[in-house]
């Protein structure tokens, strides 16, 4: 990936409460976060809304139902669901 251009798109809330940047990364015009979610390698962080959040959540559901990546392990799935519940509470 070192020889391919990477595009960073900051979200409407560019930083979280700790000062970390909130952005989407694109490699070859493909959303890297979405690719990782589809493979079950990461969770969609929903505390700060972003334009493709509904797509991320839809694809995350498909990865979960397909037992891809982290969703293949019961213990990791339980922890992921706990984190997602915590994040959901923060948005309410």
UniProtKB/TrEMBL annotation:
A family per Pfam: SNase
Gene3D superfamilies membership: 2.40.50.90
Protein name from the UniProt record: Thermonuclease family protein
């Amino acid at each position: 990936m070192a020889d391919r251009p990477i595009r960073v798109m900051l979200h409407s809330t560019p930083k979280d409460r700790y000062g970390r940047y909130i952005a989407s990364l694109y490699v070859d015009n493909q959303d890297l976060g979405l690719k990782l979610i589809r493979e079950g390698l990461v969770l969609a962080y929903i505390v700060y809304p972003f334009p493709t959040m509904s797509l991320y959540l839809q694809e995350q559901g498909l990865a979960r139902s397909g037992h891809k990546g982290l969703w293949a392990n019961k213990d990791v799935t339980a922890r992921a669901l706990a984190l997602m519940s915590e994040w959901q509470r923060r948005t309410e």
